[in-house]
């Protein structure tokens, strides 16, 4: 019998759910800034930094597990067979490893603002194209226009900014695109699982993905240099704690809690706060320069992603979808009407990134 995850019912007000998602997206927008500061002072590389983030986030999520069990118990209708479970955990953990590490490498090479915008902008586009090519999902006229707009924004961003004082570096853009590819592969994989009737508790999936990611990254992190330098150790430790606690453990917890009351399609638009937050922090805290072409490309790219989310919401009513962020999966059914909750539920999709 297929494994299905059924979240516990929630009476959370919509306003509170919206607030949780907004806070989560804002917190995610600060992750790259913390990484940029750590690159400058700690001597850590992107592999070691991702290891400490996932290992720290994993420890905090496990520490708060008893509280979660008391507040929101999950109901399982059947146990998932061992082999599919191992495959699911391995694929999601590997995808998390690729996209997190490549994202930090992109931030290191081309800056926080550009690295975040390229990663977040390219991800939904790759998901839409992958779903069309490998899963037969129709993109629709609105979706096709949005994808074309996103590609145009990416070209403006890269070609317009690369020649201006090194604002946009091709190596950083390539890392960001690799990050988006890893994220997109995880999203498409979980979408396929959902279509086959197999779901998973989002908390358990997040924990297992973090564990696989940390295990995969430990050997290369040791080669890169696992321990930070001692020159400014106190500041480095505080930044590492912040990275694990706020944009990782707290961000995931608030996001999944908010999705109990907020439509996933709505959340996919709200999380565009993340690149805006990253851009503001990049300018005000890190002193990055955003040129006119960079701003124009960013605006076109984010507008196209918002349009793609709207197109998904309009065309995806009734289709089984999932929510993925960083290898964390949220499978959520929302009835069209209160009377239809037990008669033809549907899932929304809100692929989000960091």
UniProtKB/TrEMBL annotation:
The keyword Cytoplasm does not apply. It is a multi-pass membrane protein. The chain crosses the membrane at residues 43-64, 85-105, 111-131, 143-160, 172-190, 202-222, 237-257, 264-286, 292-311. Its main location: membrane. GO terms for cellular component: membrane. It is found in: Membrane. The keyword Transmembrane helix applies. Residues 16-158, 171-307 form the EamA domain. Keywords: Membrane, Transmembrane, Transmembrane helix. Belongs to the EamA transporter family. PANTHER family: EAMA DOMAIN-CONTAINING PROTEIN, INNER MEMBRANE TRANSPORTER. This is Drug/metabolite transporter, DME family.
């Amino acid at each position: 019998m297929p494994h299905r995850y059924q979240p516990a019912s929630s009476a959370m007000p919509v306003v509170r759910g919206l607030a949780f998602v907004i806070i989560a997206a804002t917190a995610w927008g600060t992750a790259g800034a913390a990484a940029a500061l750590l690159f400058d002072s700690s001597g850590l590389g992107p592999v070691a930094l991702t290891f400490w983030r996932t290992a720290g986030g994993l420890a905090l999520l496990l520490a708060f597990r008893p509280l979660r069990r008391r507040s929101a118990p999950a109901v399982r209708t059947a146990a998932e067979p061992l082999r599919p479970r191992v495959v699911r955990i391995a694929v999601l953990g590997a995808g998390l490893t690729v996209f997190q590490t490549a994202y930090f490498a992109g931030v290191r090479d081309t800056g926080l603002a550009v690295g975040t915008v390229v990663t977040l902008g390219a991800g939904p586009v790759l998901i839409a194209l992958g779903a069309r090519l490998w899963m037969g999902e129709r993109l629709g006229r609105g979706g096709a226009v949005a994808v074309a707009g996103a590609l145009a924004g990416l070209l403006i961003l890269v070609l317009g900014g690369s020649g201006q004082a090194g604002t946009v570096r091709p190596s950083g853009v390539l890392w960001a695109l690799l990050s988006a590819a890893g994220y997109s592969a995880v999203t498409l994989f979980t979408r396929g699982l959902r279509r086959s009737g197999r779901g998973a508790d989002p908390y358990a999936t997040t924990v297992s993905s973090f564990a696989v990611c940390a295990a995969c990254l430990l050997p290369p992190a040791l080669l890169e240099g696992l321990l930070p330098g001692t020159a400014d150790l106190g500041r480095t430790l505080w930044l590492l704690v912040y990275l694990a606690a706020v944009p990782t453990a707290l961000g995931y917890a608030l996001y999944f809690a908010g999705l109990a009351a907020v439509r996933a399609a709505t959340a996919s638009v709200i999380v565009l706060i993340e690149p805006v937050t990253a851009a503001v922090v990049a300018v005000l805290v890190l002193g990055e320069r955003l040129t006119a072409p960079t701003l124009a490309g960013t605006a076109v790219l984010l507008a196209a992603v918002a349009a793609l989310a709207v197109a998904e919401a309009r065309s995806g009513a009734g289709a089984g979808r999932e929510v993925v962020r960083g290898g964390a999966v949220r499978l959520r059914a929302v009835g069209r009407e209160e009377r239809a909750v037990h008669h033809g539920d549907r899932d929304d999709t809100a692929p989000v990134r960091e």
